[in-house]
Write a structure and sequence with these properties.
By secondary structure, this protein is mostly beta strands. It is built from eleven helices and 60 strands. Among the domains are: 80 residues, Immunoglobulin-like (Sandwich); 40 residues, no CATH class.
C-alpha cells in the first residue's frame, strides 16, 4: 500500500483517488467509509471519491473485492493504492445458509468466479465446471444445446440411489430435475462446490452428493452501471466420426472378402464357384450382401475380378433401368452435420447506495445444434433488489423468468445409441455405399411437393432393400419429424431480514420454482417408419412446482476482541409437486399439425402426479480465537416423504476445526510463508434419492383392454423398512500461500463412506417381482486433491498466472447383502466386496488363431485331477458362460483435473483452460461395432480402418480376425469382451480466449467506462486413445451414439457505461 497527501485536519471535505497496484489504473466501485460513522462514498469511473469527515473522525476504511482493505488517516489530495490479495482471509465464501470468511472457513469448497465463468460459452452452467474445481468430475454425455452435464463430486456414493449434487441458487435448494438451462450464466457471480461434511451437513436430506451453490450478481458500485455484451459465432462438431472406411470401393472389397471366405469355408465352394456366388449376391440383401448396386459395369462383365478387386472398368453411379432410379453413395456425415449459428446478447443495469442495491438483466441466446431440428433458444429476465428499510430491517426480492425453446430430436442420446434414428451412430455405421436420397434416372434428387425424398432402404418408391437398418434414414427423420420443448420457468425468492439488537439477525425467506414444459412431437406421414400409419402426433405437458420456506436466526458476537462466536438456528421446509399429462395418436388429418386432435386413430393417454416433501431443523456454532483457532459444529434433523412414517426422520451432523499456523508468533520469521492453515472435518450426511417417490409402498399399474375392463398389476415392490442412506465423510488438509502469495493452493485428503446404501436387491421372479429397494451394504470413496496457483509475473503492465488441480480417487465396495455372498453380477457389470464398483464381468479376449484367423477367447478348462487352467476357444458361447468370464480391473482413472493460464499485457488478455484424465479404462462400444467380421447380420455396417489388419494368410500374426459372412465365429468377433477395453486418458482443450481492452483514455472519450473486444473458442479439441472416442461420456462405456460436444468459435464485444 502506498499513500501520499498533505497534512491531516479535523473536519473537512476529503477528496482522493483509489488505484490498483497492478497497473495503476483507477479502482471503480471501491467503498470509502469514515470509521465509526455511517458516512461513506463509492469511487467513480475514474477512481475518484469525495467524502466529508465529521468532527473528530478522520480515519478512512477503503475496501474492494479481491483487494486488501486498508485504514488510513484522512488527508487532502489523497492517492490510495490497493494491493491485490489472492489469499485475502477476509474474502467472503458462500456456505450453507449463509457466508463465511475465507480465513475462518473449516470445510472443503471450490469456487468458480464470474471472471472465469464468463470465458465459457455454455448454455447450461454445469458444463462450465469441467476442469475448474478439484474433486469435481464432469461427464459430457449429451452435447445437445441446453442439456445438463453429469456432475460427480468426489466420486459416486451409491449404486442405485441418486448421485447428482444438490443445486442451491441464492440460498434456495432446487428440485432434482431443475432445468439449469433456465439460468443465464451471465447472471452468476460465483459457483461454489461444497465437498465435505462440514460444508454440506446442514442440507441433510439432499447434501450427500455434494452441493453446488450458485450466487447471482448484485450491484457493486454506487453509481448506476450499464453493461452490454454481444457475441456471434458458429457451432460445429467437436467429436468427429471414428476413423471409418470412406471409399465405396474399399468397403465393397472387404465385403467381397467376407462373402468369399464364407462361401469357401462354410459352403465348401470352389474358388471359381465362390467368385460367381459373391458377384451374384453382393448387391442383394442376403448372404452377407449389402443390398445396393452403386457401380455400373460394362455388359457381360462382373463387378469383381477373381482377385477380389473391383472391376477397373466399373464406374461409380448405377442406373437401374427396371425401376428408373439412379444409385450413388452420399456422404452421410457431411449431409447430417453442418455448422450452425450461435449468437448471444446480455445487458445489465445495476447500482447501489446506502439503502438500496438493485440488479436488472436481460439476455437472449440462440444456440444452434449440430443436426437438423436441433437447437436451443432462451430469453431470460432477472430483477434483484435489496432495500434497507431502516437501521434494523432489510427486505429483498430476486425474481427470474425464462422462456426457452429447445429443438431436441428424440433418439440422439447414449441410451438410444442403437436406434435407427440416431444420427451420430448411423453416421459412423452406415457403409459408404448407400444413398441418402432417392434419385431419378438422371441422378437428380426426387422431390415430392417440394420435399426431398429420402432413401429408407425399404424398396419403397422403387428403391432397394437395404441390408443395414432397413426403414431407417435419420437425415429424413430429422428433416420431417419435429420435436420441440417449450419452457416457461419462473424462479423467485423474497426475504425479510431484521436486526433487533446488535449482532442478532432474524431472517425469513420464501422461494418458489415453477417449470411449465410442453413437448410437441410430429412423426411425418410422408416417408419412414410412421408413414404406413399416416404419421403420428404427441403432446406432453409437465408442470413442476417447488416451494421452500426458511426461517433463520443468526447471532454474531466478539468478546474481548479475541473470542468470536457465530450461532445459527433455523428451519427449512420444502414441498415439490410434479404433474404429467400426455396424449398420442396416429393418422394425421393435417400432416403439419402437432395437435393430437389432428389424429384419428390409436389414441393413448397417460397422466399422473408425484409429491415430495422434506423438512428440517438445524443448528450451527462457529467459534474462533483471535481468528487463529477455529471450530465448527453443525447438526440437522431431517424428514423425507420418500420413507414410511416410522423411518422418515434422520439426524445428520458434522464437526470441524482449523488452525492458522502463520498467525503464531513462532512463525513470524518465516517471511516467505504468508499462509498456512491446517483444517479437518468429520460428519455424516443423508441421501433419500431412491428413484421412486413412494419407495415404501407397493405400486400397481392399471392395464385395460378394449372393453374397458382393467385389473391392477404390481409393477413396483415397495419396502416399508426403507430408510436413509448415510454417508460418513472425513476431510483433512491445509491451505497455503508463499512468496508474497505468488504460490497459493490447498491439499486435502478425503474419505467418504456410504452405509445403508439404497439399492435394488434381485428377487426370484416367481414371487411376481424381480427386485426390491433395500438398505444394505457400504462403499467408500477416498482420495487426495491438489489445487495450486502460481503468479509467474506481476508488474504494472504485465501479469501471468497458471493454475492446476488434480484429484486422485479410489472406490471400494465394503459390503453387500448377505444373500449375495459378496458378489452381485448385473451383466455386463460386477459389484464385489473389496473391489471398485467400476468393473465389467466379460469374456476375456485371447487374440486371433494364426492358423485359420478365428477369434479366440479364454475359458476355464478342468483336467482329470481337477486342476483349472485358462485355455483358448473359438466358441464365444463357451467363453461367455458366467463360470468363464473375468472381472476387469478398476475402470476409474488414477487422476483427473484441470489446468490453465492467463496472461494480461498492455490491455491484451489471453487465457487457456483444459481438463484431463489419466490412468483409467473404458469399454469402447463405438469401436466394437465397427470391428465386426462381416457376418451376414452385419452386412452394410461400415468398418473401422483397422479392418485392414484382418487375418488373410495362415501364420499371420494379427489381432483382427478373418472376415467371414457365414461363420458362427465371425458372428461373435465384435461381441463384448476385453478386446475392446481402451485407455480412457484424455486431454480436452475447453476454452481459449484472447481479448483487448481499450485504454481508459480512449474509452472515456466515448462516454464509456470499459470497451473490450475478444475472440473465444470452446470445446476446441479432445485428444484420446483413438479418433471418435470421447472418454468424457462415463467412467465405463463410450458409444458413437452420443450427441457430440459442440465446438464454438465466437467473436464479441463487451462494454460498460
Amino acid at each position: 500500500m502506498l499513500l501520499s497527501g498533505g497534512a491531516a485536519f479535523a473536519q473537512t471535505q476529503v477528496k482522493g483517488v483509489v488505484v490498483s497496484d497492478e497497473d495503476g489504473q483507477p479502482v471503480i466501485g471501491a467503498t470509502v467509509r469514515v470509521v465509526g460513522t455511517n458516512v461513506g462514498a463509492v469511487t467513480d469511473m475514474n477512481g475518484n471519491f469525495n467524502i466529508t469527515c465529521p468532527q473528530g473522525k478522520n480515519t478512512l476504511n477503503i475496501a474492494y473485492v479481491g483487494m486488501e482493505p486498508i485504514e488510513v488517516s484522512a488527508r487532502s489530495n489523497m492517492r490510495i493504492v490497493l494491493k491485490n490479495n489472492s489469499e485475502n482471509l477476509d474474502e467472503i465464501v458462500v456456505v450453507a445458509y449463509g457466508t463465511s470468511k475465507k480465513g475462518t472457513f473449516t470445510g472443503s469448497a471450490g469456487v468458480m468466479k464470474a471472471d472465469k465463468l464468463e470465458l465459457r460459452q455454455v448454455s447450461e452452467v454445469s458444463n462450465a465446471l469441467a476442469g475448474a474445481v478439484a474433486g469435481v468430475q464432469v461427464q459430457s454425455n449429451n452435447g445437445q444445446p441446453g442439456s445438463k452435464a453429469t456432475i460427480r463430486v468426489r466420486g459416486v456414493g451409491s449404486i442405485n440411489a441418486g448421485k447428482d449434487p444438490l443445486y442451491v441458487i441464492d440460498g434456495i435448494p432446487m428440485p432434482n430435475d431443475a432445468d439449469l438451462s433456465s439460468i443465464n450464466p451471465a447472471d452468476i457471480e460465483t459457483m461454489t462446490v461444497l465437498k465435505d461434511a462440514a460444508s454440506t451437513a446442514l442440507y441433510g436430506a439432499r447434501g450427500a452428493n455434494g452441493i453446488i451453490l450458485i450466487t447471482t450478481k448484485k450491484a457493486r458500485s454506487g453509481k448506476a452501471v450499464v453493461t452490454v455484451d454481444a457475441k456471434w459465432g458458429s457451432n460445429s462438431r467437436e467429436i468427429s466420426n471414428y476413423d471409418v472406411l470412406r471409399s465405396p470401393q474399399e468397403y465393397l472389397e472387404y465385403e467381397y472378402a467376407a462373402m468369399y471366405n464364407g462361401a469357401t469355408s462354410n459352403l465348401g465352394y470352389s474358388p471359381e464357384k465362390a467368385w460367381r456366388w459373391v458377384n451374384k449376391n453382393i448387391t442383394t440383401n442376403s448372404n452377407g450382401g449389402s443390398g445396393y448396386q452403386v457401380y455400373q459395369v460394362p455388359e457381360g462383365e462382373y463387378l469383381f475380378g477373381t482377385d477380389g478387386k473391383l472391376n477397373p472398368n466399373a464406374t461409380l453411379g448405377y442406373k437401374d433401368e427396371a425401376t428408373n432410379r439412379y444409385y450413388t453413395p452420399d456422404n452421410w456425415e457431411k449431409e447430417m452435420f453442418k455448422p450452425t449459428l450461435r449468437q448471444e446478447y446480455n445487458a445489465t443495469i445495476s447500482g447501489s447506495n446506502d439503502v438500496n442495491n438493485f440488479y436488472i438483466s436481460a439476455g437472449f441466446l440462440d444456440d444452434g445444434g449440430l443436426i437438423s431440428g436441433s437447437g436451443f433458444k432462451r430469453t431470460s429476465l432477472r430483477l434483484k433488489d435489496e432495500y434497507k428499510v431502516n437501521d434494523w430491517m432489510k427486505v429483498g426480492a430476486n425474481v427470474a423468468y425464462t422462456y426457452a425453446k429447445s429443438f431436441y430430436p428424440d433418439e440422439q442420446t447414449a441410451k438410444n445409441s442403437a436406434s435407427s434414428g440416431n444420427a451420430f451412430a448411423i453416421a459412423n455405421w452406415m457403409a459408404p455405399i448407400y444413398p441418402m436420397y432417392v434419385r431419378d434416372a438422371n441422378g437428380d434428387i426426387i422431390y415430392n411437393n417440394g420435399r426431398a425424398t429420402y432413401d429408407y432402404g425399404t424398396a419403397d418408391d422403387g428403391t432397394r432393400d437395404r441390408s443395414f437398418m432397413s426403414i431407417s434414414n435419420p437425415a429424413g427423420q430429422l428433416k420431417y419429424d419435429k420435436t420441440e420443448y417449450l419452457m416457461d420457468i419462473l424462479n423467485g425468492n423474497w426475504f425479510i431480514d431484521i436486526t433487533p439488537i446488535d449482532g442478532l439477525s432474524l431472517k425469513a425467506q420464501w422461494a418458489m420454482n415453477v417449470d411449465n414444459t410442453k413437448k410437441n412431437m410430429l412423426q411425418n406421414a410422408y416417408m419412414g417408419q410412421f408413414a404406413s400409419m399416416g404419421g403420428g402426433a404427441g403432446q406432453y405437458h409437465t408442470r413442476s412446482y417447488g416451494f421452500d420456506q426458511q426461517y433463520i436466526a443468526n447471532y454474531v458476537r466478539t468478546f474481548n476482541n479475541k473470542h468470536n462466536i457465530d450461532v445459527t438456528l433455523g428451519y427449512d421446509g420444502y414441498k415439490y409437486k410434479y404433474d404429467y399429462l400426455s396424449a398420442y395418436g396416429t393418422s394425421l388429418y393435417n400432416p403439419e399439425s402437432y395437435f393430437v386432435s389432428n389424429t384419428v386413430a390409436q389414441w393413448a393417454i397417460e397422466g399422473y402426479q408425484d409429491n415430495y416433501s422434506t423438512e428440517g431443523y438445524f443448528a450451527r456454532v462457529n467459534y474462533s480465537y483471535e481468528d487463529k483457532y477455529i471450530g465448527n459444529i453443525a447438526v440437522r434433523r431431517d424428514a423425507s416423504s420418500r420413507f414410511a412414517k416410522d423411518n422418515r426422520w434422520g439426524t445428520f451432523w458434522s464437526g470441524s476445526a482449523a488452525w492458522i499456523v502463520t498467525k503464531e508468533d513462532f512463525m513470524k520469521d518465516l517471511t516467505w510463508l504468508n499462509l498456512l492453515k491446517v483444517k479437518a472435518s468429520f460428519g455424516q450426511q443423508g441421501n433419500d434419492d431412491v428413484d421412486n417417490y413412494y419407495a415404501y409402498l407397493d405400486q400397481f399399474k392399471m392395464t385395460g383392454d378394449a372393453t374397458g375392463m382393467a385389473d391392477g398389476t404390481l409393477y413396483y415392490k415397495g419396502n416399508p423398512d426403507l430408510t436413509w442412506e448415510k454417508q460418513t465423510a472425513f476431510n483433512v488438509g491445509f491451505d497455503f500461500g508463499m512468496f508474497d502469495n505468488k504460490f497459493t493452493g490447498s491439499v486435502e485428503y478425503f474419505s467418504r463412506k456410504s452405509s445403508d446404501m439404497l439399492y435394488y436387491k434381485p428377487i426370484a421372479g416367481s414371487l411376481g417381482y424381480t427386485k426390491m429397494p433395500m438398505n444394505i451394504g457400504s462403499m467408500t470413496n477416498s482420495g487426495v486433491e491438489f489445487d495450486l496457483a502460481y503468479n509467474i509475473l506481476h508488474t504494472k503492465d504485465i501479469t501471468w498466472d497458471v493454475n492446476l488441480n488434480a484429484t486422485f480417487i479410489k472406490n471400494k465396495i465394503n459390503e453387500l447383502h448377505p444373500d449375495l455372498k459378496g458378489k452381485l453380477i448385473d451383466s455386463p457389470y460386477i459389484y464385489e466386496e473389496g473391489y471398485s464398483m467400476y468393473r465389467m464381468f466379460i469374456p476375456e479376449w485371447a487374440g486371433v488363431d494364426p492358423d485359420n484367423g478365428d477369434a479366440l477367447w479364454y475359458y476355464n478348462a478342468t483336467d482329470e485331477n481337477g486342476k483349472v487352467t485358462r485355455e483358448k476357444t473359438n466358441d464365444y458361447t463357451i467363453a461367455a458362460l458366467t463360470s468363464n468370464r473375468i472381472a476387469t480391473e478398476d475402470f476409474m482413472p488414477t487422476v483427473y483435473g484441470g489446468f490453465g493460464t492467463t496472461v494480461k499485457a498492455y490491455g491484451v488478455d489471453f487465457s487457456i483452460q483444459a481438463s484431463y484424465q489419466l490412468g483409467g479404462t473404458i469399454y469402447d462400444n463405438g469401436y466394437a461395432r465397427l470391428m465386426h467380421a462381416g457376418y451376414n447380420s452385419d452386412a452394410g455396417t461400415n468398418w473401422h480402418k483397422d479392418i485392414r489388419n484382418a487375418w488373410t494368410t495362415p501364420g499371420q500374426i494379427t489381432d483382427v480376425p478373418r472376415l467371414n459372412s457365414l461363420s458362427d465365429n465371425a458372428n461373435y468377433a465384435s461381441a463384448t469382451s476385453t478386446r475392446f477395453l481402451t485407455s480412457s486418458d484424455y486431454l480436452s482443450i475447453n476454452n481459449i480466449t484472447i481479448g483487448y481492452t481499450l485504454p481508459k483514455q480512449i474509452v472515456n472519450k466515448l462516454g464509456l467506462t470499459k470497451l473490450r473486444v475478444y475472440f473465444a473458442g470452446d470445446n476446441l479439441a479432445v485428444f484420446s486413445a483413438r479418433k471418435g472416442l470421447d472418454p468424457r461420456q462415463s467412467y465405463t462405456t463410450a458409444t458413437s451414439g452420443t450427441y457430440s460436444a459442440i465446438r464454438t468459435l465466437s467473436g464479441g464485444v463487451s462494454l460498460a457505461f
